[in-house]
Write a structure and sequence with these properties.
By secondary structure, this protein is mainly α. The protein is built from ten helices and no strands. Helix content is about 85%, strand content about 0%. The longest helix has 29 residues.
Length: about 230
């Protein structure tokens, strides 16, 4: 656990220094806030207040978080940091817990910002956080799976981008296309977006689908880890 904590601190420092990652973390909530204040609220109810919050939350969780996880692993490989950590006795599981923990912790700050701008009641805010954190866990696992598969940073980007685009932008497309919504219904970002859009509706089914996504991605990670390990 101490090793995981050390990796967590290292990765947190790397994120703070990485302006590109910080920009990704800032752009989504800023755009959601601007569109909510300038478009949704002045519409007089024609556009739901939660519409842009739902849209950009899904993009952030489904696109930014997995890409950040994959990028962190690939970057450590290319810089030689991963090899140094392995030689220093850091176990692969500790490394992944540290990296994934940073992505989830920093992502939670953004998710709280999304929830606050949605004008939610305390109970609605709690539902929002539970569902989006579940999506965040799934995204970290998705990024870790791709990170294990990819051999370098360029390959990691090439693999994770089309996948994360589907998970991130899929719910937005589904708002305007019923068929797309049905096709993407098994994905966690689709269920997360549906819950946010109708925050007072029962979320039991959506929560179970998100949980199923987590289980599947965890299973893929375990299988991939057993075959490949965390190559340095």
């Amino acid at each position: 656990m101490n090793n995981a904590r050390a990796v967590f601190v290292k990765q947190l420092r790397d994120i703070v220094k990485n302006k590109a990652v910080l920009l990704q973390y800032l752009v989504m909530p800023v755009m959601a806030l601007a569109l909510t204040q300038l478009v949704a609220k002045p519409s007089g109810g024609a556009i739901p207040v939660t519409m842009f919050v739902s849209m950009f939350t899904a993009i952030f969780v489904g696109m930014v978080m997995p890409a950040a996880t994959t990028g962190a692993i690939a970057e450590d490989r290319e810089r030689g940091s991963l090899r140094f950590l392995v030689m220093a006795g850091v176990k692969p599981v500790d490394y992944l817990l540290g990296v994934g923990g940073v992505i989830l912790a920093t992502g939670t700050v953004v998710l709280v910002a999304f929830g606050l701008m949605g004008g939610l009641t305390p109970s609605q805010f709690g539902r929002f956080i539970v569902m989006t954190l579940g999506g965040g866990v799934a995204s970290v696992l998705l990024g870790a799976v791709v990170g294990l598969l990819a051999g370098n940073q360029q390959a990691a980007t090439a693999v994770v981008m089309p996948i994360s685009l589907v998970f991130g932008f899929g719910p937005m497309i589904a708002m305007f296309n019923v068929t797309t919504g049905k096709l993407l219904a098994p994905f966690y970002t689709m269920q997360m977006s549906a819950t946010i859009s109708n925050i007072d509706a029962p979320m039991g089914k959506s929560a179970l689908i998100v949980l199923a996504n987590i289980v599947v991605l965890l299973g893929l990670f375990v299988l991939d880890y057993k075959k490949r390990g965390l190559r340095a």
